[in-house]
Amino acid sequence: ETDLVLLTVAQDYKYATDGYPTFSEIARQALECVPVAHLVAVGPSRDIDAWRHLENQVPGRVHLLGIVNDLAPVIDAADIYLDSFPFTSITSVLEATLAGIPALCYQDEVDRPLHFDDFVLHPRVAGSKASWLSTIEEWSEDADVRRAEGARMQAETMQGHSGPNWDNRLSAVYRNARRGAATCPTTVDGVIEPYDVETLALHTSGGL
Fold this sequence. Notes:
6 strands, 208 residues, 6-stranded parallel sheet, alpha/beta, 45% helix
């Protein structure tokens, strides 16, 4: 059978959690369920106990690349993208879906500290560990389904991040910023430095 590459990209802290499940724990279960799968992690360091332990649990199938300056070759090699949790890596989800790689995110229905409801992204979202694992199995077993999901996400991401849709959303941000600037205070509380007046107006009006 052909090896399958599961890719995840994020800084160490985005995987850090005091609760259960942890990314490394259910990633181990995914690798056990899909014997041909390899996990490639960009960002996490083997200096972190959880990642080093995962390497030891599944020898030869966990590849910790650390910081990578050029992600293109890694993304080209990936079959499935697994988003970090409990903190999502929005940029990485965007890059993966733009490349046509199906992206899977885990968002517990009770504890959802940071996610992407306000962003134009359309990954598959699993609300439980069982759903997360079963999706990986489904995509691993059926290349046609996997490619179709990747193509759907790519099209939806492109639609939201280019052309008239993107132009309209960007124009709305600037309109809100200008509207907020008209009522913005002339001084900024030192507590929120280093914001300047314009940046405060943008944030207050719901911009970036």
